[in-house]
Amino acid sequence: TPVQAESGLRCEPGETYIMNVMVSGHPYWVPVYQGFKQAAEAFGCETIFSGTPDYDITKQIASFEQDMVKQPAGILVHPMQSDPFIEPINRAIENGTEIVTFAADSPKSNRTAYITSDNLAEAKFAADEIVKQIGESGQYAVLENPGQSNHDLRVTALIDYMEANYPEMKLVGRQATNQDSTAAYRATASILQANPDLGAIWIPEAGSAEGAVAAILEAKSDVLVMHADITPVTLEHIKAGNIHMALNPNQGMQGFMGFLATFMASHSDVFDPFNDYKVSGYNPVQIPFVDNGFAVITKANADSFDLNTYMEGRDPS
Amino acid sequence: MEKSINLAPPATQGMGALKKLLRMRETGLILIILALCIGMSFASPYFLTWVNIRAMVMAFAVEGIVVVGMTILLISGGIDLSVGSVTALAMVIAGWLFLQGIDPWVASLISIAACTGIGAFMGFFVTRVGLHHFIVSLAVMVIARGACLLFTGGRPIGLFTLPAEFKFIGQGAIGPIPLVIIIFLIVVLAFDFMLRRTTAFRKVFYTGSNEKAAAYSGIRTKKVIFLTTTLCSALCGVAGIIYMARFGSAQPTFGLGMELNVIAAAVIGGASLNGGSGTIFGAILGAVLLSVVSSSLALLDVSVYWQDIIRGSILLAAVSIDHYLNKRRR
Amino acid sequence: MEKSINLAPPATQGMGALKKLLRMRETGLILIILALCIGMSFASPYFLTWVNIRAMVMAFAVEGIVVVGMTILLISGGIDLSVGSVTALAMVIAGWLFLQGIDPWVASLISIAACTGIGAFMGFFVTRVGLHHFIVSLAVMVIARGACLLFTGGRPIGLFTLPAEFKFIGQGAIGPIPLVIIIFLIVVLAFDFMLRRTTAFRKVFYTGSNEKAAAYSGIRTKKVIFLTTTLCSALCGVAGIIYMARFGSAQPTFGLGMELNVIAAAVIGGASLNGGSGTIFGAILGAVLLSVVSSSLALLDVSVYWQDIIRGSILLAAVSIDHYLNKRRR
Amino acid sequence: MQDDVILNISDLHKSFGAVRALRGVNFELRRGEIHALAGENGAGKSTLMNIIDGILQPDSGTICWNGTPVSIASPTEAQKLGIGLVHQEIALCPDVSVAENIFMSATNISRRLLMDYRALEDRARSILGQLADIDSAMLVRDLPISHQQLVEIAKALTLDCKVLILDEPTAALTEREAQILFSIMRRLADQGISIIYISHRMVEIFDNCDRVTVFRDGQYITTQTVADIAPSDVVNAMVGRVVDTLYPDKMRPQDCASDRTPPILDVRNLSEAQRFRDISFQLKRGEVLGLAGLIGAGRSEIVKGICQLEGDVSGDISLNGTPLSIRTYGDSIRAGMVYLSEDRKGDGVFLDMSIAENISALDLGLVGNRVGTIDAARETDLAETLAAKLNIKYGRLSDPVSSLSGGNQQKVAIAKMLSVDPKLIFLDEPTRGVDVGAKAEIHRILRDLARSGVGIVVISSELPELIGVCDRVLVVREGQISGEVSGEDMTEENIMHLASVLDAADAQLQSA
Ligand SMILES: Nc1ncnc2c1ncn2[C@@H]1O[C@H](COP(=O)(O)OP(=O)(O)OP(=O)(O)O)[C@@H](O)[C@H]1O
Ligand SMILES: Nc1ncnc2c1ncn2[C@@H]1O[C@H](COP(=O)(O)OP(=O)(O)OP(=O)(O)O)[C@@H](O)[C@H]1O
Ligand SMILES: [Mg+2]
Ligand SMILES: [Mg+2]
């Protein structure tokens, strides 16, 4: 519309975008939300960080429905499980709230876009790096977290990739640690015991990595540690050389692109694409999937990934 | 002989009803919840909207069915830590069977039967072997969670293909009211009535109050405990099936930590952890209180870093006030 | 004349010691653990290596300090669900203070004092307000977790800069034995001795066994309960500090679900959830059992999808066998 | 004279909600005297004792200790003053050894850091030695109720006190233990210790006490020297009217069934692995049968065995001529055979539940509708009827049983048994803690029931009660029936003779 063209892509006063997550106290969301907020500020929009502090699907759905009560322009949601969110997401869209998912998807819903890091790519990269470091024949182990889909993917993808490409690499240990550093300590200690020739270990998240490193240091073993995500503690271990490398999804981009996708979905009237949106009822800016990429963290660049430094002077919520 | 000290003269009927209300165990809790709601309706214009109320009730309705089972079990002197895993297992078994091509209704019945079996298994260890509920249900909590993983390989089972009439249980509505809420209300009212009024459930109170005295009154206390343990798991099975219909999926990690929530609701509502007392109505009020507090914090956009602190403090304050009111009333 | 009832004649001294050992509450558990260990040492050549044993002990040593506090609290008739959060809070407070530039030893003392304060806070609500331990500690569990979030913004605090002599607590060793294990053993032995032999701690048993009878004998039972509640939190504080020194970090999400593990250890070791009985030695054996089972499953590389099922089953079997052995002995 | 008074209480008031338990009572205790306190159930005796021991606080009134007003805030303070109390309800720590229980107060105030278990057990043994044969290393939870009562007494004897209060200590004791207790009491009194003695047994009061104070309905009535007053006067002062404390008439000829009707209960060769063996007896229609014996003789076990409450018994039992094949106590109740427990707090009543709920516990069918719901009105009716019949003193029927006085709790337990109109009742210490008036009433009810064809078997440690109520008494010794007395032979001497262990040894010597 002409009005829109005049003001450009800007929010009207009070136009609000919400980012909804589960386990909302988790630090993973912090840089994501910063990206979300920075993008929003650029367009003059307001943002709310919402969700449930609990690991509880029912509570997250309740909080999502409460978000809807506020009639926001859009919600960037991390659905804890995909199918339970189909109905709430579709209902929100019917009510005029645009929905984009991030880090976890609800593919059967009508959400307009899905922003994520590519867990398969991470796993592939990690596998290649392990082989590069310890050679094509050796032993490796993984810690895992059955039931958490992205962690699951990181582990199973790596194992599959190894089997397909490096048949000489032998998986000798596979333990569930559920992000608990004490459990990771115990599991790693046992794996080290049973496999003195262990060459590398792949850990899909940082909490377990902390415990695993403690066990490896205590056993004075020189196993190559690779893990995904970071915490200040694993960062220190990377700097100290105890951890070889961490792969960290580009959280800031996830939030930034997440906002853009939501905002665009809500301002889709600026765009009249060459497709069937008018008859299909879909949003014109439908984006199947955006890869926000991941960072490779080593001794060399570790300093740039200190979240505490990054957050200095910023408001977390 | 002084026709002994019947000091309470039969008041006029109206007065009597009011007095009775004031003497009820649950009155304090109702007042606290009302106070919270009134405060919230000023603090947020959205609080009293139908959508918000619906969301709040939906957030605890299915868990409320588990609360019913837990309350009865607590009254009989038991406790069950496995409710979360067993609920998840109910979803997983039914979902898995459905994917094997079994009719969803049949699958659900099999799944509920399996959960009932788990309850009977626990009941066996408690009443025959003589172990404590706590440790038996802790072990079963771990086992059932393991079974969930085993059935699913740790991945949620998508059940989009469930027939619409089955999904209707969890997603349908009669008029404006979701069927889930209606089922919940029926379960609550039925069990509340039975627990207050039927001779069968009265035995649960006797058993929990003093197991030995109950045995000396001819009550087969072990049978009672066996049955309450089984009932609690069976209701978890029912809850699991409703969740499955609602979410259209079965999640192996569902219900982590549910046990504390459910026990807390029952205890806030006046159930004693030593057995012998408690009401379904009170326990549901406890669940309502917990849910209203969580929902309010979410609605008010309270910073996540403060939410837990506020939530815990409100819980503590509410329980203290309720306790104080009850003490005074006596 | 049948000088009845004294059926056990005073046997020779050696026999007596053996009998006493066989009559001990803990013997069954020791046998079960030994059986497991022997089985494992055949199944895996690594099981009986010093490094593996060290790792197994390290895996429960710090938590073992919390088990001590919990056992004493259980004996006095209480329970504490907040141990996991309070341990995490201890790490977080000390770590945060250290980053503010405070000497780590001073920061640790302040942190332990704060945890003690939390225990006193709970003790107040239990003994003065009259609430149940369960609900008070549940609320405090939520509040303390919230406080962890607030201090850290949910992010783990990296404490690599801790001075080496401080890290020595958690990472150092005297000869081949890690200091953590030495501290653990000292705490366990000290409290086990005190609980068995000192008059002060006997009052804990009296209070837990029958609070009324204890009060009638002049024991200030509320004070006892207040103190055991406080002690448990204080020991969580100590455990938190050791964890911090060991991991060189403070994790706000540390210890989720620790409470069930810790209570399970105490209960497996013979502590009664109704108060009045339990031993530190038994509780530690309970922790050992849980740890040996977990470590064994990891060592044997059992599929993760089976581990929980096996773990829960072993737990149930062990407790049943122990119960059976105890019943026979009586 | 006045400085002889160690404890003086005047115008003391205490209410529990609407129940006015004490309404301005006075009480005076002299140094070295044994002072009996008498009153009906619910008169306020235990309440006053709890106030003296600092467990309860009075609403108003003064307590003077050695002439100075004091307020006793807790048992700890009472202990410091030198007051020791044996509670009416047993309050011991079940998970702790007998020795530790006995010395709990001493441990509490001891300055020693470490426990000396050996010394503790030695001392416990020497104190218990004078009372009974109890292993001081046993856990209290494994003791029968009568032994627990003795432990309670032993516990009080260890206190270094100036005033010792005994609240119905003999309710669960037999004659022999009671006599031991009395001699200990006299010795203590001679040492200048004052004793307050509460009992519903007039004989005990008149044989052992110096003075007696009577309460009625929370009010002070009188204090008299025992020598100046007759038992019937005390009873009249307690009840406020003349009470016929005589035992009811014995069985009349017309109550007897003809020889052809079978006995109500016929027990043959009943045995249980450890507790008793080869028990055979019959209960005839219209008769009240007694079971006598020393503590631990196994009377309760036999009766519980018959009812399938405990133990794995073998033998034949028939009820009214039909052989019984019951497997649970529930079956027994349905067959019309009920058991009143001796341990009212442990397994007799539901302390936290209401009076009405307690009374209907045995057969909920009585208060239920056909569909299995409870008819509240019928439940209240049932409770009201039985409460009136047994003269239970209560505030509301919805009050918990824990708010009743000990004797009234006992009456609730009896009401529970009567609610089902049983064919046969076993009563184990039925009048434990029940006052004289109510006791006579209960005895009359038992006799009426017997006349109407209900079988009555009474176990009692109080020989006069057995002799007064029963038509025939079986004596149990070490798990066997050692004899039977009836009619003229039913004397305390004969029963004691059959019951005591010494004679068993004699008998063995003779048969050898
Ligand atoms: N905790 C309580 N709550 C309510 N009423 C109580 C409580 N304790 C005692 N009462 C009432 O106080 C009155 C006096 O009770 P108390 O126990 O002193 O009687 P008692 O003289 O010892 O009788 P008994 O001979 O039966 O032991 C009774 O009516 C009783 O119901
Ligand atoms: N639970 C039990 N476990 C082991 N022995 C028991 C148990 N209960 C009772 N006994 C023993 O059984 C015997 C009979 O006990 P009981 O006290 O019932 O006899 P009684 O003749 O009824 O005497 P009273 O009722 O006067 O104490 C005693 O030696 C007692 O120690
Ligand atoms: Mg009394
Ligand atoms: Mg007996």
What would you note in describing this structure?
The complex is a heterotetramer, with one copy of chain A (317 residues), two copies of chain B (330 residues) and one copy of chain D (512 residues). Helix content of chain A is 43%, strand content 21%. By secondary structure, chain A is α/β, with parallel strands linked by helices. In chain A, helix 5 (119-134) packs across helix 6 (149-165) and helix 7 crosses helix 8. Chain A is elongated and about 65 Å long. Chain B is mainly alpha-helical. Chain B is 74% helix and 2% strand. Chain B is built from 14 helices and four strands. Chain B has helices spanning 13-23, 27-43, 50-75, 83-99, 104-129, 133-152, 164-171, 179-197, 199-209, 211-215, 221-247, 258-268, 280-299, 304-329, and strands at residues 157-158, 173-174, 177-178, 249-250. In chain B, the strands form two sheets. Chain B has a two-stranded antiparallel sheet. In chain B, helix 3 (50-75) packs antiparallel against helix 13 and helix 4 (83-99) packs parallel to helix 6 (133-152). Mean pLDDT of chain B is 90; it is low at 1-13. Chain D is α/β, with parallel strands linked by helices. Chain D has helices at 45-52, 75-81, 98-102, 104-109, 117-129, 145-158, 175-190, 202-208, 231-239, 299-306, 329-334, 344-348, 355-359, 376-389, 406-418, 436-451, 463-469, 492-499, 501-511; strands spanning 5-16, 19-30, 34-39, 60-65, 68-70, 83-86, 163-167, 194-198, 211-216, 219-225, 265-272, 276-283, 288-293, 313-319, 322-323, 337-340, 424-428, 455-459, 472-477, 480-486. In chain D, strand 11 (265-272) and strand 12 (276-283) form a beta hairpin. The interface between B and C is large, with 48 and 48 residues. Bound molecules: adenosine-5'-triphosphate (2 copies) and magnesium ion (2 copies). The site of one adenosine-5'-triphosphate (ATP) has 21 residues of chain D, from strand 2, helix 1 and helix 15. Chains B, C: It is found in: Cell membrane.
